[in-house]
Task: structure prediction
Amino acid sequence: MKKFFLLAAVSLAAAQAAHAADIKKGEDLVNKGGCIACHGAGMDKPIAPNYPKLAGQYQSYLFHALQQYQAKHQTPLYGRNNAIMSGMVAQYNTQDLQDIAAYIASLKGDLYIRDEMH
Ligand code: HEC
Result:
């Protein structure tokens, strides 16, 4: 029961932050996208020390990072320069990136420092 309320609170917070970002859809996209192959189980156990932990990062930050990789893919003079991630995000639209960011932000990893009221 407590788990349900926690989940509801997290979903609500995420939906308010990013115009109805869909956490469930984000989960599907992450699973189908093979993201855990590098970022690890729960997006919290990267396979290499120089690969970032993502679970529990702020949604707005994750969305911005994903958009920056995409910008690089589209216009080489702008955005974050990482061939792997630019390739990974090329297939998604802006709403997809919002949903992905909302899902990853909802995961309780080491970086998840907010309480459920936030
Ligand atoms: C082949 C390995 C690989 C796969 C698969 C992969 N990533 Fe990454 N990801 C990386 C690496 C390496 C970085 C760090 C890149 C850099 O230095 O900018 C990164 C960075 C990121 C960042 C930025 C993190 C930060 O703190 O700035 C996000 C967000 C991200 N990945 C999300 C995803 C998502 C979502 C997927 C699946 C659609 C995915 N990644 C699949 C290797 C991967």
